[in-house]
Amino acid sequence: MLTQGxxxxxxxxxxxxxxxxxxxxxRSKNPVPTPVEFHHxxxxxxxxxxxxxxxxxxxxxxxxxxxxxxLDTGEPKITPxxxxxxxxxxxxxxxxxxxxxxxxxxxxxxxxxxxxxxxFASICEKCKIATEHHDESPSGDNSLLVDLKDFKAGALCRPxxxxxxxxxxxxxxxxxxxxxxxxxxxxxVGVLEKKAQALSSRLPSCCGVQQKLVKRFIRLxxxxxAKQIKNDRKNYN
Length: 237
Known about the structure:
With 237 residues, this protein is mostly helical. The protein folds into two domains: 11-71; 84-236, no CATH class. It contains eleven helices and no strands. The longest helix has 28 residues, at 209-236. It is elongated, with a radius of gyration of 21 Å. It starts with 16 loop residues before the first helix and ends with a helix.
């Protein structure tokens, strides 16, 4: 240090806070994650970094709570200064109608979310029946993609009509609010969730299935939107 002419050294820069915080988020769901879980969690953290602006040079202060909230399915803490009216001002254009192909993709995503809720959330049998399609009758034209990917009968989850209709409403809401202005909001996840919770549904309210669907779908949809914005910027540059 003296040879190079430095007058002082910051020993705090020798810590590995960034690695410790990253791996603590990765291991928050499973202490010993599988390769697939590790890859999935790392991608979520990367998206979390992408969605927020770093305000300081210290990793300890660079929205580590935001990263933890991105992996947490608990009740989000919405910043008091952020109101739903801010979201309404982002884009007031009417939601475009979904094409037949987009509805098939949305049906596949809805089945994935319903499967996760049934598998990991504590819900009663009534809520399970209300969110998953159990009948042997066809699920309709929206299930064409699931039927194509379902090589083993019953391997993929199909959402009930009530669950799909509710997620369809959230998708329409999401499409009217997306854009670069949305990503610049301090808490885009919380603002979107608050607006989506006000949507009507025919799902049971005993186990909070509606809230669980909103939280999982909004986070999944934001990850897809962030990836699309990243690809668009990459292609533009």
